[in-house]
Write a structure and sequence with these properties.
2 strands, 6 helices, mainly alpha
């Protein structure tokens, strides 16, 4: 079995999907990292810059710069804590929620287009193979 060929194909698929995703995000003036921040903020209660920094293993000043940009664009707001005025939590704004919804819809359309030439049988087989690969490689844990 030629594992190198499979590895190369996974790499090409990953590059292709990342390129498609980047095109969608660029249309909306976002990077993949900024979109990741938006998703995390939208799903994390009491989200903070420190939390994002620790979770993503990125320095706090770098996260702060990105959050400042998202705030300036009206996608995220900072909520000052009542008990400690130095402490802020991050909240996604209505504009941010709408943008996430719009981007996810465009991502779904892109995936539908990508897989439009696959039969249901092909898709089930691909899903089974990917699941098996991820499960047996302990990637899904």
């Amino acid at each position: 079995m030629n594992y190198e060929k499979i590895f190369e194909q996974f790499g090409r698929l990953n590059e292709f999907l990342n390129r498609k995703d980047s095109e969608i995000l660029q249309k909306h003036g976002l990077t993949q990292r900024q979109f990741e921040y938006l998703l995390l903020i939208s799903t994390t209660e009491n989200c903070t810059v420190s939390f994002l920094s620790e979770l993503l293993k990125i320095k706090k000043p770098t996260v702060t710069l990105a959050i400042n940009e998202l705030t300036n664009n009206g996608l995220v707001s900072r909520i000052q804590a009542k008990e400690d005025k130095r402490f802020f939590t991050l909240k996604i704004t209505r504009k941010g929620k709408n943008l996430i919804r719009k981007i996810k819809e465009e991502q779904r359309k892109a995936l539908n287009e990508i897989f439009s030439n696959f039969s249901q049988k092909d898709l089930k087989q691909l899903s089974w193979i990917l699941h098996k690969f991820l499960t047996e490689s302990e990637i899904t844990g």
